[in-house]
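Narrative of activities, Objective 1.

The group set out to show that a structural description can be obtained from nothing but a protein's sequence at a throughput compatible with the screening campaign. Below is one input-output pair from the validation batch, recorded exactly as produced.
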Amino acid sequence: MNIKIEKLQKALCKTFCADIKLIPKKDDLLLVENPFYFPDGDPYQIYIKELPTGVLRLSDMGHTMMHLSYENDIDKFRQGTRGDLFDKIIAEMDINEDEGQIFIDCSPADVAKNIFRLGQALTKIYDLTFLNRVRVQATFYEDLKEELYRHIPEEKIHPDFIYEGIENSSDYPIDYSIEGKYDPLYVFGIPNRDKARLTTIVLERLLRAKANFESILIFSDQKEIPRPDLSRLSNAGGEMIAALDAQDDLQRKLLRRVANGT
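Output recorded for this entry:
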């Protein structure tokens, strides 16, 4: 190895020291200016506070969860798979969380390494927003199927239904046809923009064919659908359920239209 380790170490130390600065905020609080940033460009907020015992507390002062709340339902970080992943990060990184504040208590000698450990933990927590979106889209149709069969007798549900009254009908499948009280109930699962557009096309063809049906559009997350696509879909479709986990809304709207319910 031709690298001069001592010289490289000095260069690294100089760079890291330049990126880390302490800025007094109050008599007992220091802001740690650091090289960590959220994807939107906002810096991580890390503070140092001396506790009465002489131990130092490194904390984000609740800023990370507040930042996530701008585009996420923070309550869901305590529920289901995302809640399990959140708890796992807290345990694996050996950090603490209390009412949204994420922190590490350490001795003055361990401050440097724990600043980076806290930064790594905050990154993992933020990444849950991406991991959750991937997981939801990957499992959405499985979850939809489970919900329908939980509320409706299996013999009344016809998956991958083809309405023969339109041209090239096999190109326009309907996720589920359910035997309704008066007309068939067509259920469309919508995890993303592409499916929203396809569903609009299917519904418009059904309407042009003067098909007798009702429809329910069930979203993975309605907020993820661009407004123009959602507007076109709402003009063609029937009832909408904004998210699959709105179970009370889903059950009520299903059973109101299904023959004999469950």
